Amino acid sequence: MISTFHKSGFYILLIAFAFILLSFCPNYISTADAIEISSLECIKCHEKVYLEAINYTYQHSILKEACTHCHVRVKPQGETYSTMNFSTFQKEQIVHLDDIDPEQVYQAEVMVTDERGTRCLPKRVKTDIDDPSERNSQYTDIKTISNVTIDEVKKGGFVRAVLSWNTNAYSTSEVVYWSDKGRKSKFRSGRIFSKKHSVILPGLRHRTQYKFQVVSKDFSGNMIESDEYTLDTSKNIAKSDNSKYKPPTITHLTAFTIKGQPGVFLKVFANKAAELSVKLIEIKDRDTKHGFGLLDPIVTMIDTCTKCHPRGTSHPVGVKATGRKIRTPDELPTIDDGIITCVTCHSPHGGDNAFFARFDRNKDICILCHIGGY
Ligand code: HEC
Ligand code: HEC
Ligand code: HEC
Ligand code: HEC
Ligand code: HEC
Q: Any idea what DSSP says for residue 299?
């Protein structure tokens, strides 16, 4: 009686422990970028394995919910494809990722940096998610440029100026500028499209009269130029911003495609004007069955087990048999030329022996390796 009580007490503790671990362990929390495959999906294709498991005398109660925990990656096993920084300060922008491999799925990690250099927490979006409502609403031809303004002229070693203007359609931000003495210079935003444009021209000379023109091109290449304006770097123009400082955050992030255009467009809105950077991560070996892929055997057979069971509960793992008194058994599964895992002695889906042991009596299991005793 006492011992029964003892045992069930132990199980309650063990289960409680598993729950505590589940709630702390980041792998078990489904994050926004995790691929959601429910265990029901797994069971559909692996019915035989499942039916076998639920007919065992000793059940591993977590079996049904935990197919994914034990077997699949929750995050892409990616390598950085490239990072792109765009030097325009805008609140609402669309970036065209035109040179990505159409066969490959990427995860785009987007970040914005404000004028103080403070960064937001990155947000991620998959490039194969296409939002048709975005596509339809963004696709208008450019007709007008308005409100061309010099927001700021700031002096240091050189002078920098902040220019802004508006357009009716999402379009690029380009500035052509020149002084009497110099050749024409050009600033281009590259593949960033916006309706409220703001660019910084660094490295201007002191006490110089510049002429400039702003230029914007829409998605299909229609271009519009403004009149010529004058920028006098002997003047000081300070930005009047009395509002309380707020760190940058991304308020909207979606991916969409436009027919006839290569690659993918990302629409990024921030809470304030900020500079955009995009890191493209290639999602390797992604398939519809196993999402980001099956976990490595050593993870499935040791690390996932020790997330719920303390490592010291049982026999040492991650070791190989060395010496004359001990051998690697053919009867028990090991990995990488003899590394012992939890699954060497326990069948993970449950079993017909107590403790899901692969052999009936404890002794039987031990002497398979410890031929000279221990
Ligand atoms: C659409 C059917 C399908 C789905 C859904 C599916 N699998 Fe599979 N699974 C397969 C096939 C087919 C294979 C063997 C070929 C391969 O690896 O792609 C396999 C292989 C495996 C293997 C390796 C088997 C071995 O002998 O090494 C494991 C483990 C596995 N799947 C677990 C899962 C888990 C866990 C899930 C749920 C997240 C799942 N599968 C979802 C079809 C599926
Ligand atoms: C406690 C972790 C764990 C859970 C939960 C789990 N598995 Fe496994 N599974 C393993 C391990 C470890 C192996 C490797 C066993 C071996 O090689 O002997 C394995 C092997 C497999 C295999 C290939 C070997 C075979 O038996 O055919 C498939 C398929 C599989 N599991 C599917 C599933 C499905 C489906 C579920 C959910 C119903 C599931 N697993 C739940 C750990 C787990
Ligand atoms: C999600 C948490 C979780 C994971 C992961 C997990 N287990 Fe368990 N395991 C449990 C819980 C809870 C119990 C106790 C209830 C039960 O018998 O299912 C248990 C029981 C056991 C038992 C004892 C059974 C008995 O009869 O006393 C063994 C042995 C075991 N697990 C081995 C493993 C191995 C090996 C792995 C890795 C392949 C693993 N477990 C992964 C939660 C987990
Ligand atoms: C060399 C074989 C072997 C290996 C490797 C092994 N176990 Fe065990 N384990 C056993 C045996 C045998 C028992 C039954 C022990 C007993 O009778 O007290 C057991 C018992 C357990 C129990 C039940 C504990 C209890 O006191 O009720 C859990 C849980 C367990 N093992 C989990 C694991 C996990 C997790 C791993 C990997 C980290 C692992 N085992 C590795 C042989 C092994
Ligand atoms: C799959 C082979 C294998 C099986 C089965 C096995 N052992 Fe081991 N055992 C090892 C290896 C390998 C070591 C590590 C030896 C070393 O590092 O010197 C080890 C170490 C040990 C140690 C020493 C632990 C320490 O911390 O130094 C003990 C005690 C032990 N085993 C007991 C057992 C018992 C009891 C069983 C049966 C429940 C068992 N072993 C089953 C392979 C096995």
A: I
pTM value is 0.65
Q: For residue 114, what is the DSSP state?
A: -
CA of 140 to the centre of ligand 1 (A): 45
pLDDT band at 197 (very low <50, low <70, confident <90, very high): very high
Give the Å distances, CA to CA, from 42 to 29, 62, 254, 301.
19, 14, 29, 18
Domain ranges of the chain: 2-75+289-367, 78-284
Cβ pair 94, 138 in contact under 8 A: yes
Q: Whose CA is nearest to atom 21 of ligand 2?
A: 49
According to CATH, the superfamily of the domain at 78-284 is Immunoglobulins (2.60.40.10)
Q: Check residue 122 and report its DSSP letter.
A: P
Distance 357 CA to ligand 4 centre (A): 8
- Ligand 1, residue 291: give the atom nearest the CA: 38
Question: Relative to the alpha carbon of 355, which ligand is closest?
Answer: 3
Q: Do 200 and 192 form a contact (C-beta atoms < 8 A)? A: no
